[in-house]
Write a structure and sequence with these properties.
There is one protein chain. Helix content is about 45%, strand content about 10%. By secondary structure, it is of the alpha+beta class.
């Protein structure tokens, strides 16, 4: 039995929109070969109505307009849409006009009113002296403007192209000649759009205004794309249209306390190894760069020897992007080196890897992560108050405000943020990159941010460990830290020893979770060295004495390692991550000989991570990159500290890729 025909209704459209998913709904009247009315459901916008038909097995959709339950300019009710579909269906059922697009005036859009919906419809050719509406329409003007943005390597061209296609193309005004558009025409289109999305109305208004300005300026320029002269424009009707206020200007800037709590959360959350969290940490360390510019950074933009990263600032009217060079401190370099390892492991050219290796992380991912963090911090009371909500756009305002507070000059802030750099001097003369001055300013900034974090450290840890925080608050968001995550600090370890049969310790290396805190100690013992295997003599012994501390006392080595663990863990439990049982056994003996052993033994947890770090090509690539990076220090693999760094990189990459 054939199921009952489903008609398109306002209730059906509303129900589909509530689901928040993209979908196509069909107005099934039970007739085949007549074409159909369909509705496209998208997130955050009105349903778009189309007339859909097929020719020789290929489907075509002619836009009718956005849907509305009630009659209003720029929209169509279902009754109006069905009347228009009936006219187009008449054309479709006529063999001479079966491809409805070719039978319609202008460019084939349904908004062009046919003089009569009869089967004998004939379209008269335009006069050679008149501009063809399909080529000189408002839609064609905006599409040429987007093409010019693309030719000028402006990254905004994609978003603008999507806005033109989604918001302008379905409108009747789109096919009207651009030269005959009036301010009232533009107002009618924007008014309906502003009711459902003020932001999109503001965006479309800006595109139309810029397209007219570009047409009048580029008409006789030889270095621009051709086609501007066909519009023959004398004025810009969008100039007289009032500006749409999509949203009030934000003034939220995090104070020092909130900034410190944010930094602690970025380093302590279970999501700390994600690309979004890595981006946010590095972004704060570098003073708060523009999100999309920063996300476009590639691994080739990182200078490993000079320890700098170059961003390309194409914002504004620049014909060529401005090279914005930023120095990397030790803390920032640790973040960048791990991101480079992930990029190499994923075979991606981008520093911030996206869902596929040929794309970068999307800016909406960063925005969503920031909003999630804001909800987490706002859901718990730190001391006597919560953290007020914030979004990603507030972070750049925060960094510039706090930099001014600690005495960084306005001119240096402009250089750090690539903001407000204009005028003849900057445009034509000053080519100095100010890298040393930027490094000094970023050092001051990072010291301030870390001091704010240290001041809030006990409050942050205590808040997530006391029982006063409700279970609902703890589970409200997946980013909320669990007690176990803050009760332990991880260390990756490695040792070098004489031989496998009867191993004796030669050196030990430990790398803390932050990637900054490290400990490396060598044990000087001529007798032990005499018992080394041939491999150790050739590969390990030549690397001793290049880094770290050397001692001839086992007790001194034990005291040094245990002091490092206790100072870095700051009262938290300690997780020691290893991939070889001999490493665990040797380090256990070292710790057991320390005077602090009784205080330490109940807080130690050993974790064998060999399965995680040896299970994927990504981890192997991360290890290889870590070894290559360490070569700059004159050492490489088979060195305890370097191997511990590689183990940490492999583990974090494996966790991130999975």
């Amino acid at each position: 039995m054939r199921p009952a025909n489903r008609r398109l209704t306002n209730q059906r459209i509303a129900a589909a929109q509530k689901l928040g998913k993209k979908a196509w709904l069909c107005d099934d009247v039970g007739l085949r070969g007549w074409g159909r009315l369909v509705a496209r459901i998208s997130n955050g916008v009105s349903a778009l109505l189309y007339f859909r038909y097929s020719v020789d097995g290929r489907y075509y959709s002619i836009p009718l307009g956005p849907h509305s339950e009630h009659e209003q300019p720029g929209y169509m009710t279902l009754t109006q849409a069905r009347d228009r579909v009936a006219e187009l269906s008449t054309l479709y059922r006529n063999p001479a006009t079966r491809d409805v697009r070719t039978a319609l005036p202008a460019s084939g859009h349904a908004f062009q009113q046919a003089s009569a919906p009869s089967a004998e419809l004939v379209v008269a050719p335009s006069s050679p002296t008149d501009p063809a509406p399909s080529r000189a329409s408002l839609l064609a003007l905006c599409e040429l403007y987007v093409a010019q943005l693309k030719a000028d390597n402006k990254t905004s061209w994609r978003d603008n192209a999507a806005t033109v296609k989604r918001e302008l193309q379905p409108q009747e005004l789109a096919m009207k000649p651009a030269a005959s558009i009036t301010p009232n025409d533009i107002v009618q289109v924007l008014r309906g759009l502003a009711q459902r999305s003020p932001y999109m109305a503001q965006r479309l208004q800006g595109i139309i205004h810029a397209a007219y300005e570009a047409a009048m300026k580029n008409r006789f320029k030889l270095q621009r794309l051709g086609g501007w002269d066909q519009f023959a424009l004398e004025s810009n009707p969008a100039r007289n249209v009032g500006k749409i206020d999509a949203k009030a200007t934000r003034d939220r800037a995090l104070n020092g306390r909130d900034l410190g709590l944010l930094w602690l959360h970025l380093n302590a959350s279970p999501a700390r190894a994600s690309i979004a969290y890595r981006f946010l940490r590095l972004d704060l360390l570098l003073g708060g760069q523009r999100c999309q510019q920063f996300l476009r950074a590639k691994i080739d933009d990182v200078d490993e020897f000079a320890r700098t990263i170059t961003l390309r600032d194409g914002k504004g009217r620049r014909k060529k992007p401005r090279h914005h060079i930023l120095p990397l401190s030790d803390l920032a370099w640790k973040e960048v080196s791990e991101l480079l390892a992930i990029s190499h492991a994923c075979d991606s050219d981008f520093l911030f890897v996206g869902r596929a290796k040929d794309v970068s992380c999307h800016h909406q991912t960063i925005s969503n992560a920031t909003s999630d963090i804001s909800k987490v911090l706002a859901s718990v009371t730190f001391g006597d108050r919560n953290v007020a909500p914030f979004i990603y756009l507030d972070l750049r305002r925060t960094t510039e405000s706090r930099m001014g507070e600690i005495g960084i000059s306005r001119e240096m802030k402009q250089q750090l943020l690539s903001h407000g750099l204009s005028g003849v001097q900057e445009t034509h003369y000053d080519r100095y990159a100010y890298v040393p001055q930027k490094a000094e300013a970023l050092k001051v900034w990072q010291e301030y941010m870390l001091s704010m974090a240290e001041a809030q450290r006990s409050t942050y840890l205590q808040t997530y460990s006391v029982r006063g925080v409700s279970k609902t608050q703890r589970s409200a968001f997946h980013l909320l830290p669990r007690q176990a995550d803050h009760a332990a600090v991880r260390f990756w370890i490695d040792t070098e020893f004489t031989q496998f049969d009867n191993p004796a310790l030669l050196s030990v290396g430990l790398v803390a979770e932050d990637g900054i805190s490290e400990c490396y100690v060598e044990l000087l013992d001529a007798e032990r060295e005499s018992h080394c295997s041939d491999f150790v003599r050739e590969e390990v012994l030549p690397l001793l004495g290049l880094l770290g501390v050397r001692t001839s006392s086992q007790a001194e080595l034990s005291a040094h390692v245990t002091s490092f663990l206790q100072a870095t863990a700051a009262g938290c439990s300690i997780q020691l991550m290893y991939d070889c049982k001999i490493d665990k056994d040797l380090l256990s003996k070292v710790l057991e000989e320390a005077p602090q052993w009784d205080d330490l033994k109940d807080h130690l947890v050993w974790c064998d991570v060999s399965a995680q770090v040896n299970a994927s090509e990504a981890s192997a690539a991360a290890k290889s990159f870590a070894f290559d990076a360490s070569a700059l220090e004159g050492v490489g693999r088979n060195h305890a500290l370097i191997d511990a760094r590689a183990l940490r990189a492999a583990y974090l990459v494996a966790a991130n890729v999975s």
